[in-house]
Queue: 4 jobs
Job 1
Amino acid sequence: MKTKIATLLGIAIVLCSLFLVATLSATAIAQSHTTQRVSAPGGVTTASEDDYVLDIYGNANEDDTIDMRDLTYVKLIFFGKKPVTELADAKYDGKINPLDFVQIKMIIVGKEKELTIVDSADRTVTVKKPVERIIPCMPPIAEAIQVLDAVDEVVGVSYVITGEYKKADKSRSFPILSKLPSVGGHPVDYETVLSLNPDVVIEYVHKRPDDLQEHLPGVPVLGLSFFDIRLMKEEMQKLGYILDKEAEAEEYLEWYE
């Protein structure tokens, strides 16, 4: 009898152990999936909705914003107290030094002279600041600029936004932007774009911004979407940093979410 009871107890202990291991493994896998970066259609890299990295150089601790914690983190990297992160190189010069401290502080107060970001096409682009002349090449990008109340910085738009394409009336959707100079579309008129002397051109991510960049020497070209809801938060934040409209971007995202 005692032998039978001991055997049953042994089986029970083994089963409990197996259940515990399975539970811990499932939890670990779930946590891994929560933080894992995933690939979106078109080769666009993004992160999960609840946990992603804001791909702007200066985001040293690689969370979803740039603040004093990044300044602290990059100093700890410099003194060998924290591991190096890619985005800690705020000056984007291949090294971590006090210039990165200054750059992060300037980003925080909105006084940086340039900003380096990774766009939605996984391209690293440096934009001179402040941005005062911008050309959006697709309606969703123009809509995002309107949301951030930055239409005064737009100097030209694609022919879809002016309404030339398909002879559409865009005055209600884009009351101000539809009256601006058209740069054409599919592809844009490169000479017209250059004549407008833009600080940055924002092209739709799936329209090969690299090709456009080749024809616009000296003009940074960003690839963004504003179609893909998985990218909306990060893209709106990036646009906010580019246009010095971080507060407006956060206000919109609070409503959007």
Note: Confidence is low (pLDDT under 50) at residues 1-49.
Job 2
Amino acid sequence: MKVRYVAGVSWPRSGHHLMHRLALAYFGGDFRYCLFYTSDPACCGSAPCTRLGMNFTKNHDFDLSVPILPDVPYLIQYRSLTPATISDFELYLLDGGADTKESFQEFARIRAEGWAAFMAKWVDSPVRFERLLVRYEDLVADPHRAFDAAVRFFAPGTKPDQERLARVIEGETHVAVTKQEGEKWTEKAGVRAFRKVEAFRFHDAGFFSELEAFAQEKRRSLAVAPVAEPARGVARRALDGLARSARLVGIGR
């Protein structure tokens, strides 16, 4: 089975590592992957990857600098803003962020701007290029259908082995991330939705409604008139920068 190179572009917490684990389990040990965000000297540091024999790579395209090339297939993974932000906040806490409602809301305001720009470029783009769009909610609701499409995308012309697909999905390990427990791995948990937005300790329906409305309006404006310069990425540790930028947005104030 010939597995080609696919450039992974994903919004954080949209199932990229889940997709990698599924693909590795399905295609086997010869499936080659690069994290991109690594100090490994073997990494070419390019997006898309320039190394021969690579099959899948990661990139969040925070600064919107990843080029859309006509000869590269892209697997685009995205997720609804609120659950993605809640999940990403747990990683932010592991990097030393403050676990408070105020800190979360500052973090969420910045993520909303980045999410809107990502969606406008990779999901709403009128540019025609080879891509497979995988929404996280679809991946966990119907993993057989979503991963079947991914297998066909990685290996064009291949008819996926349905029994192998089922075994891989049922044997998938779930990785939960919280500040209290760090990464918690549960073997053979399968693929399904584990997180409930309403159970989040800083759940605020009014704030989330405003956040979603702001992000969707920003997304629509960027899709119609893309920004001339790439949006700046936000380092997880830069809480001061998050707060300064968030004040410009003004959500929930």
Note: The two ends are 55 Å apart (CA to CA).
Job 3
Amino acid sequence: MQLKPEQLPAHLKRGLAPVYVISGDEPLQTDEALGLIGQSAHDLGFTERVVLQADARFDWDIINQYADSPSLFGEKRLLDVRIVAGGGPGQQGSRALMEYASRPSPHQVLRLITGQMDAKQRKSKWYQSLDRAGACIALWPVTGQNLPRWIETRLRGRGMTITEEAVGILAQRMEGNLLACAQEIEKLILVCQTREIGLQDVLQSVVDSAHFDTFGLVESTLAGDAGRTARILSGLWEEGTEPLPVLGVLIWEIREVIKMAHQVAGGASLEGITRQQPAWRRRSALLARALDRQGPTAWMGMLRVAGRVDQIIKGARRGDPREALLALGLLMSGVEIPFPDAGPTADAIPPGGAG
């Protein structure tokens, strides 16, 4: 059966399923789902826990061996199998999981933990077998437009409400960092004097915990989100990040996009390309949007602009490195502004004229 995360508490009140598949890339969501299942299992006498890491060399037959081997002390068992290599379980794992699903153990609950799964993986035979035998919980990313509702739901579960203005500010400040957002909610619950959190409560309490990470720029530029690109860059400068590593990430992104754009132009499918590259697998939809917005020629032009930014950072051209990086980031996001370039420095001008 398919379960939404918010349906899990009610499901557990009716009893445990013999198998759970928990898929998602957000650690907070995964940990909370595991915590709910684990608490219910413990209450029902599942006091033993075995944790297995399923890498490329993992012997999947062990899950059925555990099913056939009750605990020496008669304890019921939680068996956690975490796929750590990305993708699915492979042929051996698929066979073992389908066998397990056909005869789940009465003294054991299997929890299979994976990263985000695409539609093809969810249609696989092993996944469908586990879905029929137990419950599958897909944990989708809480993106910007869904974050306010996530905050409201979380507060409602604690008997609190929040005003529209306050939830908007909180979501904006916590962008990209769900764990920090959850922690901030807990802090607000503790300090708020009423059952409704208002704008002033948020402004007084919230520190800027947004996760301004250089690789966050990859997603914001691919998505064409110029506002978020500018905010991330501003946050990086406030944190004291040097411009050169930021430029390195953007150049890497541009080159990767150009390479994949040429592969697509040659007849390859974008889904097939990204499936082979872990760094791009979950960004496939964003990449498709970026390629629809700007073609290979435009991305080649961005690479030339990046070269000018590099010269500014290294002092070979006049200009502010941070302003130049902002112009490049916005260009990659689909917004063009005048490039802050005053030409080569005196030391970089060759004899006979400016370049």
Note: The longest strand covers residues 48-54.
Job 4
Amino acid sequence: MDSNTEGDISFEESDRKKHKGSESPIMDRDETYKLLQKSLVSDGLINAIKETLLSVDFVGQFCQAIVMSELFMHGISEVIHQRVDMQVKDVQEQLKVANERIVKLTNKLNDIEQYSKRRDLIITGIPMKQTEDTTSIIVDLAKSLGVKIGVKDIYATHRLPVRRIDSTQSIIVSLVRAGDRQAIYSKRKQLKEMQNYKQVFINEHLTSINHEIYVYARKTLDKRRVFTRNGLVHYYVASAKNILISSLDQIDSI
């Protein structure tokens, strides 16, 4: 065997030793990884993690950390605000619908009540006597206006109570026929020309709502242009043009 052959054999043995030495660390790492993986999935470790996560102290600290988090509080605040806004809008919509229904029902009841007063008149300015017959007073008043009615044409009549003792009590009269009532009311302005009735005024019997509208209209607008017709309040604007007033808000917009 020559020297070259011996050199080749020595080189191969040296190379095998190098490879053999380099394989050992790789196997050690694989075994270590397998052992670590096995230990991580062991029942003991899993149970220990469960016990830790379910422990009162851990849960308390975890919840406290969440609650104290600014991000968590901001998120909760946004959710609450959105929920409250939705509820407020829902309540506002319900109130709007309810108010509209209330207004409609109130107006309807007011119209029915006013219709029931279509045969009534309120007479003011007639002095009160200790012994008097209000029915006869109305008959005489109608006669002075050229309207012929008798006791049988009057359903009821009486004095109205007043708050002030020194004020004259008005007389309310309810006639049997609406036509007789209208005949008397249409001639009411003639009373100014009569000596005995200069201080006497004849008005329609209004509901509390219409009366409030009438008083406010006379106070706010030109009272000479405010009048009632069939229990409804009107405002004279121009020649042959009147505005029907049905609410207090409408008066403010005129």
Note: The radius of gyration is 50 Å.
